[in-house]
Write a structure and sequence with these properties.
By secondary structure, the chain is of the alpha/beta class. It has helices at about 10-35, 55-75, 90-95, 150-155, 180, 195-205, 225-235, 255-270, 280-295, 295-305, 310-355, 360-375, 380-415, 420-465, 515-540, 545-635, 635-670, and strands at about 75-85, 115-120, 125-130, 140-145, 170-175, 185-190, 210-220, 240-245, 275-280. It has a nine-stranded mixed β-sheet. The chain is elongated, with a radius of gyration of 33 Å.
């Protein structure tokens, strides 16, 4: 029998702890600042007033704690909704939020950009826009739009196959919906290209930062080859997959389809073979909403049960929203432990000084000497920063070139295998999706690489900088980071974009004048001889007078039409090839320089941050050494009073640290696999 899962600490409890911790740390910092201000730097100070001014690290720790607590309140588990064209992705999102007409679902309308649906106290929609003149590091501009205008900003023009608005990066929608308030954020992926070509790459790149994949199919037939290939590639991108099978009201054989799909997954994408399936009817869900609005509550309840959405929503809340919430709360506790570690270590060090331990001065002096070794230009951390940034640039450049090779391969396959009408209509949107996938892949790679570089450089400095923590004693923090070592540059964003990359050149459609008498002769004459020969043969075989003429005319018409089709195919393929080459040239011109500038800029910031951290630590050690010498000259009464106050401060900090450790233990216990996993 599986033991019950331990109850996780509540969000309110963790956030209350974070608030009390931040308040105590701020109070302590103000008290130290007041003590320093009340003391004449040139005069002998009482032993308990020599704590020094609050360090920048104190304020950074409190700020990080408050920021993490805010993310725990406002953050959400991201569910990326993926599926082939016309499987019902947008309808499923509309059903989940209970707003049938929220996202466009018309048969001739497809989504062209990402649409993010999250919780908000008031319904609203915002389009995030980019223009050609925008700086690459500038975030998209937010423009409020009416809810009924989402299609105008997010959909594709069915006539051209291109987005109606080329300047739209993505659209965000906020709704006061209980499901979203439970901690879920839904992302509708572009649907114009389904799961082939660039749109598959775009969906895969979006999964890098997703908590779960919601894969939408319908009950008409089993999983297609493109769907199975996508799921196989998505195996390492997300830890949780949920399958939604739509249109159960239209296809009575949907149970057989589900069983067949499970068999296909076990063979082609075994990672997803045990994922739960939820058969649903968006029509029944829409009718349930209408019945509820009309006051027919009994009918609404019956339709809701028939729709199949209640079990799906329950699982999304229990398994995904709750798990993501626990992870965010664990991050709050982690940051709180680190923030408590620094002042606790300082107070413990101060108590050692007040107890007049004889070897303390020598320990501080050794730490000062180690700091001096970090300052020359030839210091090991500087070499690590230089070589690490160079390696990162090379890695990003190589990854970018490989991504462009993939873009070319997929695009050339599309050009070679598509019919003229489909190629002219779909190719620009497919190529734009591939380019957007390159952006996301490059952004994800840059963030990972910068995090590795930051950690590599931090390790080179940690031995010395961590010496400031009670001279190397453990401080009870979760990661053992010392003063000045949490630089957190990656959170500032690592998006790399070309100057003109957000608005790619439009595909130029060439024209050929084949009308008029000369055009007709040009198309007809090459086929006349073949048609005449065919008619002659028919005449010899049939001894007829009329039949050869009819046969010659029919053959002439067929050959002329085939010649025009070949000419049209060549023209469209030429247009697509030229467009592909223009786009790739644009990218290869802009992006390599952007990568170099971006990484060099962040490496410079990292170096400056470390220089400041080293200088701060030197000042901190100098103050400790001065304090220790003053304590050696203080009276017994002063020392006793100071020791009493310091022990009280240590007690308050230790109480919070122990509470944090208990919370961390409770959250870790609930992070084990869910025993009722389907």
């Amino acid at each position: 029998m599986t033991p019950p899962r331990p109850e996780a600490p509540s969000r309110a409890r963790v956030l209350d702890f974070a608030a009390r911790t931040a308040e105590l740390l701020e109070r302590a910092a103000r008290a130290r600042a007041a003590e320093a201000a009340d003391t004449d730097p040139t005069a002998d100070r009482p032993a308990d007033r020599a704590a020094g001014t609050p360090s920048d690290g104190d304020g950074d720790g409190v700020r990080r704690l408050r920021d993490e607590a805010a993310r725990a309140v406002d953050g959400a588990a991201t569910l990326v909704v993926v599926g082939e064209k016309k499987r019902g992705k947008s309808s499923t999102i509309n059903s989940l939020v209970g707003v049938p007409d929220l996202l466009p679902v018309d048969a001739d309308v497809a989504t062209g950009v990402h649409i993010v649906v999250r919780y908000g106290e008031h319904p609203r929609a915002v389009a995030h826009l980019r223009s050609e003149g925008d700086a690459p590091e500038a975030p998209p501009r937010a423009e409020p739009i009416p809810l009924e205008g989402i299609a105008e900003y997010a959909a594709v023009d069915p006539r051209t196959g291109r987005p109606r608005r080329l300047d739209v990066h993505h659209v965000e929608v906020e709704l006061p919906v209980p499901l979203l308030d439970s901690g879920l954020e839904l992302v509708d992926t572009p649907g114009v290209g389904g799961l082939v070509g660039g749109h598959a790459e775009l969906a895969l790149a979006a999964l890098e930062n997703a908590d779960a994949l919601v894969f939408v199919v319908d009950g008409s037939s089993e999983l297609t080859r493109s769907e199975l290939e996508f799921l196989g590639r998505a195996t390492e991108r997300t830890a949780e997959t949920v399958f939604v099978l739509t249109k159960t009201d239209s296809y009575d054989a949907w149970p057989t389809v589900v069983e067949r799909n499970r068999e296909l997954l076990a063979r082609h994408a075994p990672r997803h073979a045990e994922a739960p399936w939820f058969p649903v009817s968006n029509r029944a869900r829409r009718d349930a909403v209408a019945a509820a609005d009309a006051g027919e509550l009994q009918e609404a309840a019956e339709l809701l049960e028939e729709s199949g959405f209640e079990p799906l929503e329950a699982l999304l809340r229990r398994r995904i929203a709750a798990r993501a919430a626990e992870l965010r709360l664990a991050n709050v506790v982690h940051v709180a432990l680190a923030a408590l570690g620094v002042p606790l270590a300082e107070q413990e060090l101060r108590l050692r000084s007040l107890q007049q331990e004889p070897g303390l001065a020598a320990e501080v002096e050794r730490a000062e000497e180690a700091l001096r070794l970090l300052q020359p230009e030839s210091a090991q951390w500087r070499r690590a920063l230089t070589t690490g940034s160079r390696d990162l640039k090379n890695t990003l450049q190589l990854g970018f070139r490989r991504s462009l090779n993939d873009v070319r391969r997929v695009a050339e396959e599309k050009i070679a295998t598509s019919e003229p009408a489909a190629l002219a209509e779909e190719f620009p949107a497919e190529l734009e999706a591939q380019v957007e996938a390159v952006w996301l892949q490059l952004d994800n790679a840059a963030r990972r690489g910068l995090a590795v570089l930051e950690e590599r450089v931090r390790r080179e400095c940690s031995t010395v900088l961590d010496a400031g923590k009670a001279d190397g004693k453990a401080d009870g923090s979760a990661d053992g980071s010392g003063p000045g070592t949490e630089l957190a540059l990656v959170e500032d964003g690592a998006v790399i974009r070309a100057e003109r990359g957000t608005l790619l050149p439009e595909m130029v459609h060439s024209t050929h004048r084949d009308g008029g008498p000369l055009g007709m002769l040009e198309n007809v004459m090459p086929s006349v001889g073949t048609a005449a020969t065919f008619g002659t043969v028919i005449g010899l075989l049939t001894s007829s007078v009329l039949l050869p003429a009819v046969a010659s005319y029919a053959m002439l018409a067929v050959l002329t039409r085939r010649r025009r089709q070949r000419a049209e195919l060549g023209r469209v393929r030429g247009d697509a090839t030229r467009h592909l080459n223009r786009v790739l040239t644009e990218l290869t011109t802009e992006i390599p320089a952007q990568i170099t500038d971006h990484v060099d800029g962040l490496a410079d910031r990292l170096g400056l941050a470390l220089d400041r951290a080293i200088a701060d630590e030197r000042l901190r050690l100098e103050r400790r050494l001065a304090e220790h010498r003053r304590n050696l000259a203080a009276s017994a009464a002063e020392l006793a009073a100071a020791r009493d106050r310091t022990r009280r401060r240590i007690g308050a900090l230790t109480t919070l640290r122990d509470e944090a450790l208990a919370l961390a233990h409770g959250l870790a216990a609930t992070g084990r696999p869910d025993p009722d996993r389907s």
